TrEMBL record:
Superkingdom per UniProt: Eukaryota
InterPro entries the record matches: LCHN/Anr2 (IPR018626), Lipid_Metab_Assoc_Protein (IPR053056)
The protein, known as: LADA_0G12838g1_1
GO CC list: lipid droplet
Species, as recorded: Lachancea dasiensis
Amino acid sequence: MLQYTRPLDMRYDAKQQSFKISEPSHKVPICCMFLCQFDVKKGNVLVWSKTSPNVPEIPLENLEFKTIPSGVHEVQKDTISFVIPKGGKLEEVYYGMSCFEQNGLSLTENSEHLDRSELQMYSLGVIVDANFRYKGVSKSKFYDWKPNQFISATEYIDDIRDLLSHWLRRNVSSSVSNGQVGSAVRDFELFETYFDSNCIKADTATLSSPMLRRSWQHSGTFTGTPSTLSEKQPHMLESLTQWFSFLGPLFLPLWKASLLRQRILIIVDNGVSFEKCNSLAYCLSILSLIPHSISDRLHQDPLQPIYTIGMTDIDLLTQHVSEALSKGKDDYQIPGFVACTADEILEDREELYDICLKVNNRDSLPEIKMSDGKSIKATPHELELYEKLVVTILGYELSHDEKEKIAKLVEPTTWSQYFIDGFYWWATAGYMRPSFHESEEESAPDLDRDNLDVVLSLVGYFHERIASLYDALKEEVETSEDQTVTLSPIFLSANSLDCFSLRDYEFLETVCRYWFDRPLKVKSIDCRIIC
């Protein structure tokens, strides 16, 4: 499988009518580097950190809880992404990532008893400022695109993972030789040297672009174990196909929530990778972007991924809500975000999110609920659409067992649809289906495509849907003689929505209000839809 190890710039190429990929000319220099530890006596602690003197002071309170979150102790290694708000607000943030590693699971492999004195549980990470610019320095256009800022810290994953593993091996070896198994060796020279080679410096202003001409010092320079290509960290977007398969038709209502810029909370079950869930947060942001083809007519900020959060972020999220309410507007909107947590107590704080996705263990089905506790399932049309996309984009047929499993994620067929489907079956002897069903015409899948090609096809599909929905709604808004735009259910069918779903009615009403500042009403379904 083809893997890209740098952030990928996914831009729409108007000439080729497709998305293309480019890579950044440079990394964002490190603002801060740190090491956190789970101590059996003290709990999570920040044991070492270093911040460049050339950047504003970065608040590191509760950093140890972001980088060693609840539930991560169930895995041996993981990668955690997070943000640190500037000025205590989510409008502008620092981006961070850390690599977690422990030996606790290996210590209990052959014994039920864990010698806590031998436990090594650390998280090493970096924090960057993707908006870093020096006055008079030409800036890289790559980081002008906000989605590229979202993954600016992940450029360092391979190095940080290598540095931590090397340091832990040396730490354990040194502790054993000194007869102090499990005690931390306070030797951070390796981290200090790496930080000094990759941080923001005063002389950066002499470069034509930040860090562009610097000879980067990768971890292998200091550990003597340079990473091989096969070990490189895949790009966050490469997990899109896995999530599309895992969530099944639930992926579609989740995408709609992202398009509405709702606050999405992902509850991570014990043993579920934070790295994968953080990647889902990024994927949802990318899939809900306003496409280039209509960006000159419709401006909407990307859905902000804030990645890993916990109980210590409750005050921040509460303030986020309070600021929206304090504006005193009847039509206020709380800015959306997508976040991951293993602290299930956040699920009970219904004022902090709009919808909640629960990612359970592999044998359990995912589930989505609204903040008021109502469950969200896929509509029958979303199931049809998902099955079609699996064939035409992912390139395979769902097995009988897979179909039975995802059927549990779908709400029952409405009586109106049941009646109309039955009428068509009776009137045409089963030869015709109503127009609200997905077309049965399927293009032959290309089985030779690599994962990245499939990912780009999925992104292209969702972006095309956004553009076509905008154009269709715009035409209805401009031709409507009334202030309230009235639509027939047939409009939903023509735009790959479920004409029997009240949730899709509400989706259209909200989209029209956000995009065109016009009220919208969908007529109730009746049997004339069969005409």
